[in-house]
Amino acid sequence: MRCLLALTGLLFITTAVSAQQEAWRIVPGESIGHVKLEMPANELASLGKPDTGDAAMMKAWRIWYGRRKDGSVDSAAVLAVFTAMRTQDTQYVKEVRVTSRRFRTAENVGAGSAMTAVRKAYPNLKLVKVYASKNRSRRIEVYDDEKLGIAFETASARRRAICSMVVVHTPGEAPGSYLDYHIGFDNLLPVTR
């Protein structure tokens, strides 16, 4: 009996640790944390009310900011979810973006990772878009593995390229194919390479 109780306790702890890890897991072409591609938008209510967002023409961005220990907003930690209508009365998740360093892929890369580590984990990444401000002082590079459904963005890295955002999208579709949106970089324009 004692062995059965110990085994049950171990199973409970293992399940709890696994659920906690899943909450911070990035799965290419599938999910970031508990937000899964193609889930109905009404299921996002479990995240609480978004801090900001924008909606038009049956499409919407919902954006949540992280919180510091004192409860203040941490605008460097962003979860952005893009939804679009697929049926007449329901929006579905089409793309998820995250800047928080807590979210990681199974290969342990995410925002804050050196792009050398990201490219090693995802060798099929291709530079697909470059954005720059008019005076060229701010720049974003978007690297995508379209087949897997994951993209990594860098922001103004001069010396060593660092991932600033991870995007999970539908495999076979480019990131931002629904709506290009870069949090904090609203004035950037596409650049020809």
Automatic annotation (TrEMBL):
This is DUF4919 domain-containing protein. It comes from the Bacteria. Keywords: Signal. Residues 1-19 form the signal peptide. It comes from Chitinophaga oryzae.
